[in-house]
Amino acid sequence: MRSVFIVVWLALQIGVPASYYLGRDRFDERFAWRMFSPVRMVACQTRFVDGTGGGQSLVRAGADLHEVWTGLLTRARRSIIEGFARRWCDARRADGAAAPVLNVDVTCANPDTLNRVICRGGSTDADADGIPDHFRDAAACGGLDAVSCFRAECGDRSASACRLDLCQVRPIPADLNLCEGP
Amino acid sequence: MDAWRRYWFEFPVLRRRLALWRVLFFGLLAADFWLILLEHVPRFGAGGFNVSQLPFLDRWLPVPTPPVVGPLYLLGGFLSTAIALGISPRRCLFLLAPVYAGVYFWSQSDSYQHHYLISLLLILLTFVPEAAWTAPAPGEPERVDAWAMRLVYVQIGIMYAWTAVTKHTGVWLDGTTLEQIVTCEPREHLRALSAATGMSLDATMAAASTAVMVGEYIAGVVYFARPLWVVGMVLIPLFHIGVEWLGLDIELFSFYMIGTNILLLMPEPWLEALWRRAAGVLAPLSRLLAPLRAPQALDAGPARAMVGGLAVLLLLAGITTPYAGAPLAGVLLALAAVFVLRPWGGVEPRLRGHTVGLLLAGLALALTARFSETAYNYHRQWGGFLRRQGDEAGAMEMYVRANAAAGERPARHLQLARLVARRESPAAALVLVDEDIRRQTLRLDGAAAHPTDAEAWFDRGKTAKALADALAYAAELYPGLGRQAEVGDLRKRREAALVAAREAFRKNMELSPACGQGRMELSRLSGSRNANEPGGEP
């Protein structure tokens, strides 16, 4: 019996963190033992939109949540987003809305590309050559000139398209109706 | 199979090792419950919202609330103190593990990974035999086989190993993550180090990041094999000292782990020497407590009367704590004492000593509730949340309690005054503002900033700014109370306070040019001067 307990415990302690790395939700690190994580460093913009009846009004999640929950929303914690949605949708149904629609637009810096030159600097391009100025003196370019360094990271894309592709992630589809549940 | 059996079930634990670790680990846990976790209780169930760590349970779980979680934390601290004192550790753990892990899994409002680790360890420790927790009496075996302690070692090893595995990413290994994590002062130290070694700051960060990862791998490995323990005992605490130096907000975690690594990994001869040294220092106390520790025959009647008396005292200790759910706390403490002491059937020969020990734990609880800042911070934070939610009556109640718990230090009188002026009367509000001015002035006059201490100058600046805010609000109230003539004087005093605040923040910046927090405060002050505003409400 004790051996069974030990085996189950070990399986959980290996399997649960592993599921984080094999799964798709990078923003929920609770059981992953990921200390000093880059995910912890990125702040997300989380915007709830009431789409009931084709509307597009903003829902202020922070209005009645404690800061600890709004903090977790800005870290794109999916279970908290779903928990808030569950409450909001139930309240709308109780108010008589037959088919409430709640969408969420979550935009986060990509924690895996924080070290890319394109993601580390601003978008200033004083000489309008299509290459952000900070490429000129970026140590991460490792001696490459600005143009080669930019092309190595972004290929033929424009700086803004490259930034959008590489530096941002949207962990939840913006058109998902959270009131329909997972 | 034989190797498996030997590895798990022939794991002798030196009882003195566990006794020392028990005092340190559970002593810290008691402080954690009463001084840190309890302050955060108002967030539980705030706004009627909760998501548990296992959200599929939310449909059945009630929302945790301060009147329930607060008493559980008070009980948790009480049981931790009892274990640290060596009072029936296993029975206490049967209660403590569900309390700690239960609250942790009940709400994601507590998302610290080290609280998850402590939950796991407490669950495992309930399987450690009672005898392993105390030093042996003469003639008793020195060691006890404890498979659960092997699993504790393996659990800690797995945790460290995962922390290392997770660092195999470009953003960790090139130093990007570390660079973003470190606070200003350690960054300046690293900058100086890189200048001294001729390396770039980026290269220094990358080297430090790699060193952290290698260190975590070593930490993971040493916990699996006893011959490597001594390596871990030397290396791993250095890692945790480094983490503290980085200034990360991880509460007491570094202290738990420094103590745990040293005591669980220390070679036995060193541990025995440490024990002898500790026993020498504590010999007078030990002699004093000897009559209580000695087994004594006690009849069931007097035993029950003694435990009943203790339960009543603990009930009172709980009820008189200044937290929501205090009656429940009292009941839980009393029931826990009865459960731990079990004055039925055969009477425990050390019942007298255990009763005194639990009485001391109750006394520690009462004193901590009375004299620490926990009660103040608990009510201050709760009041702040209610105010932001628009529940002014609730906020006022909490601010009154915060002020009562604050003693003579500056508290929430100004915030309360703003609410009282709106809901009750300006005259009542002015009494509160005057009290705030008195307290802030006393603090400002009494605080002799050390001439070279940047932090002390920053604190002085904050106090002066708080005084200016109180004076500004008083100047708003005076005309309505027929004291227009005194407004000019108030404004002069406010100006003087603002001058003192600016001077203190400038001094802070001079003493700490790279990291002084005074810069932001100074720019805020300039902003509020331009806008002619008294300043924000903290």
Oligomeric state of shown chains: heterodimer
Largest sheet of chain B: 2 strands, antiparallel
Q: Can you tell me the residue ranges of chain B where pLDDT is under 50 for at least 5 consecutive residues?
A: 530-538
β-strand amount of chain B: under 5%
Q: Which range best describes the helical content of chain A: under 10%, 10-25%, 25-40%, 40-55%, 55-70% or over 70%?
A: 25-40%
Main sheet summary of chain A: 4 strands, antiparallel
User: What fraction, in percent, of the residue positions of chain B are helical?
Assistant: over 70%
Poorly predicted parts of chain A: none
Describe the structure.
The complex is a heterodimer of chains A (182) and B (538). Chain A is α+β, with helices and mostly antiparallel strands. Among the domains of chain A are: 1-35; 113-167, no CATH class. Helices cover 39% and strands 11% of the residues of chain A. A 4-stranded antiparallel sheet of chain A has the order 2-1-3-4. With 538 residues, chain B is an all-alpha fold. Among the domains of chain B are: 146-279, no CATH class; 294-371; 408-531. Helix content of chain B is 71%, strand content 1%. Chain B has 24 helices and 2 strands. Chain B has helices at residues 2-9, 15-37, 66-84, 89-106, 113-125, 147-165, 170-173, 176-181, 184-197, 201-222, 229-246, 253-265, 268-281, 283-293, 300-319, 326-341, 351-371, 374-389, 392-405, 413-423, 426-446, 454-477, 487-511, 518-531; strands spanning 12-14, 143-145. A two-stranded antiparallel ribbon of chain B has the order 1-2. In chain B, helix 19 (392-405) runs antiparallel to helix 20. The termini of chain B are far apart. Classes of the chains: A alpha+beta (182), B mainly alpha (538). The interface between A and B is large, with 41 and 44 residues.
Summarize this structure briefly.
The complex is a heterodimer of chains A (182) and B (538). With 182 residues, chain A is of the alpha+beta class.
